[in-house]
Specification:
CATH class: Alpha Beta
CATH topology: Aminopeptidase
Helix content: 25-40%
Number of strands: 7
Order of helices and strands: EHHHEEEHEHEEH
Distance between the termini: 31 Å
CATH architecture: 3-Layer(aba) Sandwich
Shape: globular
């Protein structure tokens, strides 16, 4: 079940890139996101355990009090029609040290490898450095996910550490790769910023 796209002008979204925009997740978005987690690859890459829709709703309700403080929960929507294609969470927001971690997932297999993820990451870091005034944004990805690492590098992230045997994946212990972007890295990026896309 996919919510009908609304009729607003998606080009005017404040947190956006060339292809997608980010908006806060709403309760009506949960059934679509829940469907994504039924895909084995999506669930494994996101590190999720199996959950019911009721559990997902309860978890969302519990997180609402933290929205904007230590967590932002976004959905990724296509500019062309507003259709949800993924989700992006910014969390572990440390206002004192100016850092935060994020995680991203593109829902349906046919929406992957179309540039939506990298465009969403660019929009997110513009929000982090340009509006939240953070100094460092970081992520963890599994060592086997070389495609994701290449995407993050193209966005301006650098590998800074490897956590050995950090998690289990289908009976195997795998390493995590930690990547980050600093404010000066973001300042040096030769691309339009999110707010420059607003028409």
């Amino acid at each position: 079940m996919t919510p009908a796209p609304d009729t607003q002008d998606h080009r005017r979204q404040a947190i956006r890139g060339a292809l997608v925009y980010l908006r806060p997740m709403e309760p009506d978005d949960l059934p679509v996101a829940h469907e994504w987690y039924q895909d084995g690859e999506f669930r494994l890459l996101s590190g999720e355990i199996p959950r019911s829709l009721a559990q997902r709703r309860a978890r969302y309700d519990e997180s609402l009090a933290e929205h904007g403080k230590s967590w932002f929960g976004f959905v990724i929507c296509r500019l062309e029609d507003g259709r949800m294609v993924g989700r992006l969470d910014l969390f572990e927001i440390n206002r004192i040290d100016g850092s935060a971690q994020f995680g991203i997932g593109i829902g349906r297999p046919e929406d992957r490898r179309r540039g939506y993820g990298s465009d969403a990451v660019n929009a997110l870091v513009d929000f982090c450095f340009g509006e939240l005034r953070l100094e460092r944004v970081w992520l963890l990805t599994d060592a086997d996910n070389v495609a994701a690492q290449a995407t993050y590098r193209r966005c301006g992230f650098m590998e800074e550490a490897r956590q050995r045997r950090a998690y289990v994946d289908r009976g195997r212990m795998l390493d995590d790769v930690r990547m980050s972007m600093l404010r000066e890295d973001w300042d040096a990026l030769p691309r339009k910023r999110s707010w420059e896309w607003v028409e």
